[in-house]
Amino acid sequence: MLLLTLSLILCLMASVGVEINPRLIDAKYAVRGPILDIANDIKAKLNDPASNLPFDELIYCNIGNPQSLGQPPITFYRQVLAGVLYPDIFSHLPLNSDVKERVASILKEAGGQSIGAYTHSQGLKVIRKHIAEFIEERDGFPSNPDRIFLTNGASQGVANLMQTFIFKENHGVLIPIPQYPLYTATLALVGGKAVPYELIEKESWKLSVENIEEAIKKAKEEGIEVKAMVVINPGNPTGNCASEEELTAIVKLCEKYNIMLLADEVYQINIYKPDMKFTSINKIVKTLGAKLPLVNFHSTSKGLIGECGLRGGYFELVNFSDEVYQQLYKLASISLCPNTVGQVAADLMVKGPKKGDPSYPLFKKEREIIFRNLREKSVMVSEGLNKIDGIDCQNVDGALYAFPTIKLPKRVVDAAEKEGLKADAFYCMELLKNTGIVTVPGSGFRQVAGTYHFRMTILPPKDKIPSMLQRMGNFHRQFTQELEKTEL
Question: In 148-243, which ranges are continuous DSSP H helix?
């Protein structure tokens, strides 16, 4: 039915002289899919007493959008942003000297009194210098500011890299399953092939060299040339944190097969388990002296900054030739430059006030509060989901999400098929209609055949999580029990 509908749309558009790139139609992005459309329809009815909805608010757990769910912006970040946009603010408000100094340094690099002008196509040099210093301090190895590209969020960087290196129909990219749908959507747009490798759920979504080698072997048998491998660490949607041993094995494997590594590390500060720590793939590559090409991505949307709407991010090129750099520079130049507000946000993400600066005490306190709340919510969500009979969730050790398995009776699967839906999509739609909780079906992230999941964020306010989980548990029990009775 869905294919027929798409065909009809294409035919109708063709009849009026408008055609759509079929690659765009093939691209799927579940995070903002049909369930969000239903949620938006419900939102419009919330204030209508005649709607008889069984809830009085929607809780959006579908996307990692911290400030939309109550995470406050950090004062120092917003003061600097305000200053670069309106330098006269200092004559109206008594802002700290370190705010004024940061604003002055950014405006000086921008060439005057405004960041409303185009910058260098890779972004302002002073910001790239600060990012290189951040990487060097984190990993213990030098970083070259000239190999850093500021981007409109990490997503644009991913798109640029895919567009540059994936250009044949048999070009493939290893994608972790479950995955963040940005990768398969971007591959669909450039015409490449997703080569799925499965994470081991029962071992906290562990990276498995055996699974990856099996995926490479299968791809070769199908005539697919594996050009790159995506590693998302900490994991989205899985909430796992890869160990140094796992990542070292991945680097050695990619060297063995001559595969470029794409390291999505946008959640690197979001690690909640005390005995875990983030290790960048860049550090491992340089410790081993490996020569494989590596790209590191980071974003202002996550971490403790949570400035999603400002669209700030960067990627760093490691072990790439000057020729490749020049081509990526040309691609960046076509868009002239990344947005300047996002560039400033990226600068703030990697370089806040330091100890002894007047803004430091409040900055430190605000970040500690945000992190503590996230850590507490990660435990609340993990434990709460595991208390629901029929739901099994790995611990949320990092990132901003839980990705639990849901046990669904055959009747749900059959009912979903009747509606032309996958069983977990049907489940998430019914969950939304009955509880107001907006989640994303696991099928939107791909999953092991025969399993069903959903993704939800840990971002709702702490005081709302217990009642949210209670509503979710009541729904799951009633929904599955009623269908099981129907089967009998």
Answer: 153-165, 182-190, 209-221
